[in-house]
Specification:
Helix content is 31%, strand content 32%.
């Protein structure tokens, strides 16, 4: 068992009911990601859209993964002006976001 260094912020997203999956992903990629990539201390960022037309059992429409060196760095990033801008953008494309911080355990 190998534990990765650093911390990962995971956001579980559901899209607004008034938008299509394509509109949700387009805003997430073009607008929200541009903001998120400016977060201080960000080491990695991955978007994972889930098309519920293809995967109807999924309770979410996607999840994001953001890596930081530490929990403190992640908390500082989201408390920054860029973090506030990212937070303010969420209602523009997501109905709900549940956030958790995890440490990865990689098997391979």
């Amino acid at each position: 068992m190998t534990t990765a260094n650093g911390f990962k912020h995971v956001g579980l997203l559901t899209k607004k009911t008034t938008q299509s999956f394509e509109e949700f992903v387009a805003h997430w990629q073009a607008v929200h990601s541009k903001i998120a990539l400016e977060l201080p201390g960000l080491r990695g960022y991955v978007l994972n859209p889930i098309d519920r037309r293809v995967y109807p059992d999924s309770p979410i429409d996607g999840f994001s993964e953001l890596w930081f060196d530490s929990l403190e760095d992640a908390m500082a990033a989201f408390a920054s002006p860029v973090g506030q801008k990212a937070f303010d953008d969420i209602p523009n494309f997501a109905a709900n976001v549940a956030v958790t911080y995890i440490t990865e355990i990689r098997k391979r």
